[in-house]
Amino acid sequence: MDRLVVEPAPTKVCVGVVTRSRPVMLQALLRSFEQMQIGPNTEVVFAVVENGEEPSLSEMICEFQDNVLGSKVVYEVEPQLGIPTARNHVLEIAIREKMDFVGFVDDDETVDPEWLVQMLACIEGRGLDLVGGPVRLHPLDYPPTPMQRLIYRGLVARCSRIERRAALLRQEAQDHRVTIITSSWLGRCEFILSAGLRFDASLGFSGGSDTAIYRAALAEGAKTGWCPQALVYETMPPTRLTPGYQFGRAKDQAVAAYRRKFPRITWKLPARNLVFVSSKILSGFLLAAFSIFNRGASLTSSIRAFGFAYGTICAMLGHRSEHYRRVHGS
Q: Does 1 have pLDDT greater than 60?
């Protein structure tokens, strides 16, 4: 008598992206999705949430659906502006579609063809609830000015440092200490549901909602890890390769981090943070001086150190970040 062979249920993955006013960058990401490997017995739903009042990407999404036959594409609009609100919309799509996993990448990135295969192998093979991967920078596709070249070189060095540190923690079985952000993010839907995790919509345009949900996941007992083989590549438009932008970005990151750590401002906090601010200012000067000897590679870190010091002072005075209100790139 023949034995009945039961096929295992397919692994269902929602790959999500939120986007706002960056159709050129989004199209590059969608084209990389078209080249992305999908493992055997894996079903993928691509969720594209446009953060705006009216849909403007219907033609692009229809073309994308035609090019990813066998995968479902869900395109919806989230009228309430704010990255965390749009990310929560992706989570709702994943839950509605009864997905096993939900992933995020940013609309100014492209994915390596093996990104999803590697992320799934890591999260399933190690029994994790949340996993992240490295972000590298695309080569510039325009002739940079000397200053843009210096800033870009510094950002490449910064990405490399972050990636090396995360890889070392992975080797030491300490990669649960790596903060997982939505530039390359894959979570287990069962855990997200049971823990009641959502991105903090109150953060609005400030940024930091992905760091906040990572810390909330840890508090709920999440097992997190790092997948060094799952690569994504970020595009750097000219507007980001300026000292002003890098200073402002670091300032806003400092404000968001401070407000997350200290939701209530008290009279004791300035004294507690005086040493931190002073150390950032000192490191800014040292990095600026050292840039003379490393062809300017540490100049970006110097600018960011000054921005972080200023942002901490702003946060102590009660300021909030509105970094993502302005869209950079197209």
A: no
CA 124 to chain centroid, in Å, comes to: 21
Q: How far apart are CA 146 and CA 143, in angstroms?
A: 10
Q: Are strands 11-19 and 101-105 parallel, antiparallel or unpaired?
A: parallel
Query: Token pair for residue 262?
Result: 């200290």
Strand 42-51 versus strand 11-19 pairing type: parallel
Residue keyed to tokens 């919509």: 201
Over residues 51-58, the mean pLDDT reads 92
Q: How buried is residue 308: exposed, middle or buried, by Cβ count under 10 Å (0-12/13-18/19+)?
A: buried
Q: Are 71 and 158 in contact (CB under 8 A)?
A: no
Q: What Rg value do the Cα atoms of the chain yield, rounded?
A: 21
Is residue 326 pLDDT above 70, yes or no? Answer: no
> For residues 188-224, b (16+ Cβ closer than 10 Å) or e, as one string?
bbebbeebebbbbeebbbbbbbbbbbbebbbeeebbb
